[in-house]
Structures are given as structure tokens and as C-alpha cells.
Design brief:
With about 260 residues, this protein is mainly alpha-helical. The protein is built from 9 helices and 5 strands; from the N terminus they run ββαααααααβααββ. The strands form 2 sheets. It has a 3-stranded antiparallel β-sheet. Helix 3 runs antiparallel to helix 5 and helix 7 packs across helix 9.
């Protein structure tokens, strides 16, 4: 509850009166301050009126601001004053008004804290610990650790690390091309008759040579020079050279680069 004042030109809370004057919606010269003070003194003398210290202090502060504002307007020589000097009092008034709002904010915050304390006093904390069925014990990180195991771990940690070695035994050094194998098979197959792929690659040592021979056979089949057949699933691939007089065109052979 705020202090309500009544004047010939205004009736309401004293803070609202200060706000209207500050926003230039009312002229301070049209508001008589004497009735405000008389009404405030009458409330103080009335024993039935219950006003808090915050309400009394807020009224005194607002009344001081209004009195300062009106005294500045009534001082002589206002018309000859410089524009900057004219608004000096307004700046001080804004500071006082900001302090009033700050006081009201702190008062509201204190009321909120009191409410929280009152609600907290109505609750009772659990004084007993967690039940045995809900206790969670952390594992023992040193269980099973012996001095011998610890010494072994220390030795492994300080021993010199082996130098990494890059092994190249899987890298093919000799370049085996499909085109060269196609030429070699075109010279061998006419004299070997019908044979299996397993018999053809017998004696080859590296995997890359087997792959290149298989790709070369596919290229010869694509050119129509050999016939490939497989009698059963996962059975041996049978190779037969076709007696064709067409010449070998290496330009049509895929190089399979990479």
C-alpha cells in the first residue's frame, strides 16, 4: 500500500504524482504541496492508521523531490537561465527517482526471501542416511594389485619402445601388366589345347600374377579368341583357344591401371 494524496488537480498515490510530473504530463506549479504535507501529518497523528517505515520513508523522499522541483521553478531569473543550467535540477531529480525505484526493488526482494524462508521452515529434512538396499559402494581400484604386478608395470613403462619397421614384402616390385600377359597367353594357348585355369597358373608364386592372368583371360574372351566355361559352381574354369585367324588388337585391351 502506498500513501494516497488528494489535491484539487490530482488524487492518487504520491509515486504516480511524481511520475506524471516527471513525464511532463502535469505542471508542478499547478500542484499545491501544502495539502499533501497537511494530509501526511494528519495520518501520522491518527493512531488508527498503520503505516510502515517503508511507506513513511518513500513519502518523505517523494515530497523532497517535489519540493526541490517546485522551488527550482519558482526561483527568479529562470527565463534568463541557460538551457543547460535549466535541466540541472531535472538530472538530480532523476537520480533521486532512480534511488526510490531501487529501494522498492530491494524491499520486494526482501519480501520474497522472507517468503522462501517461511516455506523452508515448513519442510523437514531426512536425518537418516540411505537404506542398506540402496547403498552403492565404489569398486576397489587396487583389488588384486600386488607389489610384483606394480613392479612389472613400472618396468614395461620405462623400457625402450621398439623402433617401428615398415615391411614391404607385400608390395609388388615387378610390374606385371595385363597387356603383356595377353600377348604371352596368345602365344601359349594355341599349343596347349583345352586346359583348366588351375593348370594354367601352376608355378606362379605371387597373387598379383594370378590376378593378372585371370584378367588377361577375360580380355581374350572379350576379343573372341578364347572360350571360358565352368561346369559346376566353384568348379575349375576351362579354357579353350578358338581357331580364329583374326589378329590380336592390343588397343582394345584394358590396361587396368591402379
Amino acid at each position: 500500500m502506498t500513501f494516497v494524496v488528494t489535491t484539487p488537480s490530482f488524487s492518487g498515490p504520491v509515486e504516480l504524482l511524481l511520475h506524471l510530473i516527471s513525464s511532463h504530463e502535469m505542471d508542478i506549479l499547478e500542484v499545491p504541496l501544502a495539502p499533501l504535507i497537511d494530509e501526511f501529518v494528519a495520518v501520522l497523528r491518527d493512531e488508527s492508521a498503520q503505516m510502515t517505515v517503508d511507506q513513511l520513508s518513500e513519502f518523505v523522499l517523494v515530497a523532497a523531490i517535489l519540493l526541490e522541483m517546485k522551488s527550482q521553478r519558482l526561483l527568479p531569473g529562470r527565463d534568463s537561465a541557460e538551457p543547460d543550467e535549466e535541466f540541472v535540477g531535472w538530472e538530480e531529480r532523476d537520480v533521486l527517482f532512480a534511488r526510490l525505484l531501487e529501494l522498492r526493488t530491494y524491499a520486494a526482494l526482501s519480501d520474497a526471501l522472507v517468503s522462501l524462508f517461511e516455506r523452508a521452515n515448513q519442510s523437514y529434512p531426512r536425518l537418516r542416511g540411505i537404506d542398506d538396499g540402496f547403498e552403492v559402494t565404489p569398486p576397489d581400484l587396487l583389488a588384486g594389485v600386488t607389489p610384483a604386478l606394480l613392479a612389472g608395470a613400472y618396468v614395461r613403462g620405462i623400457e625402450e619402445k621398439p623402433v617401428p619397421v615398415v615391411r614391404l614384402n607385400h608390395v609388388t616390385v615387378d610390374a606385371v601388366t595385363v597387356a603383356e600377359t595377353v600377348v604371352a597367353l596368345s602365344q601359349r594357348l594355341p599349343t596347349m589345347g583345352r586346359l583348366s585355369f588351375r593348370a594354367l597358373i601352376r608355378g606362379l608364386e605371387s597373387r598379383i600374377e594370378v590376378i593378372v592372368h585371370f584378367l588377361a583371360l577375360l580380355e581374350l574372351c572379350k576379343l573372341g579368341l578364347v572360350d571360358l566355361g565352368q561346369g559346376a559352381t566353384f568348379g575349375d574354369v576351362q579354357i579353350e583357344w578358338l581357331d580364329i585367324t583374326s589378329s590380336l588388337d592390343l588397343g582394345r585391351v584394358d590396361s587396368y591401371e591402379g
